[in-house]
Design brief:
The chain is 81% helix and 0% strand.
């Protein structure tokens, strides 16, 4: 069974979907952490926010590696 190769455009569209999920997941974790802080669960809120920041950090690392973004 031969593997089908994706065009650059198809690969880009798939990557956009994956990156979109990373952004939403990180953002929702941070918002949930803020909600927990507001209702008084300080430790739980901080953990959720930290986890959200880690997810967004992973997103940044993947983005830089995938698209070879370099400073000029």
């Amino acid at each position: 069974m031969a593997k089908r190769r994706l065009t650059q455009q198809q690969e880009f569209e798939i990557m956009k979907l994956v990156f979109d999920k990373f952004l939403w997941l990180g953002f929702l974790m941070i918002v949930f952490g803020i909600y927990k802080l507001i209702i008084g669960a300080t430790n739980t809120g901080i953990v959720w926010m930290a986890t959200g920041f880690v997810v967004l950090g992973l997103f940044l690392i993947i983005l830089v590696k995938e698209f070879e973004i370099i400073k000029h």
